[in-house]
Design goal:
Layout (H helix, E strand, L loop, with lengths): L1 H50 L16 H10 L2 H19 L2 H24 L5 H24 L8 H24 L13
Helix pairs in contact: 1-2, 1-3, 2-3, 2-5, 2-6, 3-4, 4-5, 5-6
Length: 198
Amino acid sequence: MRGARKERGARQGASARTRICAAGLAQQGAARLTLLSICLALSLMLFFVELRLPLVAAVPGFKLGLANIVTVAALRLFRAREALALLVLRIVLGAAFAGSLPALSFSLAGGLLALSVGVLVLRAVPRVPLALLGVAGALSHNAGQLLAAAFWLGTLDVFYYAPMLFSLALLTGASTGFLAQEVLRRLPWRNKKISQKL
């Protein structure tokens, strides 16, 4: 009789612990989804702000890449697939409101290459400074855009702009990475549960 009671008690205790664990995971998942949504909204806002800024007309394809601040930060905050979803959603929504098919292909080619390089760099050097990560992303982003432009235009002449674009990428990439690092330092929580890559 006592053995049966102990067994029932053990099962009830295990069931309670399972429910508590499941509730905690659900709450953490909701928090991560909320943070992803905030990051998406912020990256779209930065994208549209940049559309209003004057560009360097002498260098076709040059952009400051303000939305990449969020992308670089997302590589620290989220899993690779979550950062990928954030990037693709931002590019597709941005193109839907203010772009075209070629512009979408340029952004996707550059963004996906930059994200892939960022993930590889982080896996190789987990504590890499975000300024360097931003530079790697900016360089690979420009490379992806040049490849897309060569495809659409059917010529390799677009690589004539590569030295200028890559030189500017050193500055813009370091700036976006530095700003991403500063954003992460100023996040309101001290608890790392939300930003852990589970």
